[in-house]
Amino acid sequence: MSSHKRSTKCFALLSEALFAGDQASSLDWASTSSDSSSGLDPRDFSAFFSEIWMLANSNHVIMRAFPALPRLLGEGVTDSAEWIGRAVSREQSRIAHALSFLSPICKALQETGDVIVIKSLDHWPDLGNDLDLYTNADASDVVAVMRKRFDARPDARSWGDRLANKWNFVVPGLPELVEVHVARLGQTGEQIAITDSLVANSTLEQFGGYTFRVPAPEDRIIVSTLQRMYRHFYIRLCDVVDNAKLVDSGAIDYAHLMSLAQSAGLWSGLASYLVIVSGYVQSYRGESLPLPSLVTNAARFGNELVRFKRNFLRVPIFPQATSLYAAEWRRLLLNGEIRNTLRLSLLPGLATAAAVELKLTGSDKGIW
User: Does the pLDDT of residue 290 top 50, yes or no?
Assistant: First the structure.
């Protein structure tokens, strides 16, 4: 079996575990044909262990997907429950260790300004592979606190990091990087209007016995949209789970969300993002998310154009993603945000340089 075909099957298995719910309990994994879209031959399952773990880890869904795997795989797959139990236990330990660092870091940085944990805790009970924070403090104060209080050192900053006004810190004893976005959001730091909402509407919530300030549902979706539709152009399974849970909860004020996204030039991208999520969920649980028409009517494309490739769900760049970039650029210009428009104008050149660097050296870290 080819590597891509094996990855596709494992990705489908994780999706079944996350979205199919009780509907997946009737699947007979032991007898499902190896040529089906999601079935795995249990005789070959040992070869899939590392692939499943790698995909679940990179998509931040170990804690949410793995508990359902033994039921999906059935008794025909020997030792799966024991292996899955060990993987979950290791992940629980990693997350607990990360939170024990994140809590004092947030408390220390709060002495210099507001601190919001963005993205990382959206995946709870999973956790991202780095710890993302937003603050309106001065960058010099952030660096000073991280150095003096935690003996942290700033990681090398790419051109993209400098434009986005963010710092990555290496903290002794903490495997994860701490990524701090200072006063700006977006790949080139072009988004400043939405940061007021991020701070003003944030709430205190508990995670693993610690209390953190996190974004409101609408701001969570905005930040996720920026990351997935305007920066990376791929969607992780955790993003699908996170946003589907928000939509299903009924906690989203769509009028406020639309107003906020429109002011930033992100509404068409956000609507497309939610429709993609809805379409992917529907393919496994049989029904779409309860999205209002103001969202579905604004979407430029949906799940039909998204494909699994290189571990994630890939968003088409031409012409779909480029048209979203153009809409954001026009809105910033119409808002009179000249400097932010100029920042965003650097994105195509930056992306091109990163692509060339990746092809020549195998890494785009110095650029992107």
Answer: yes
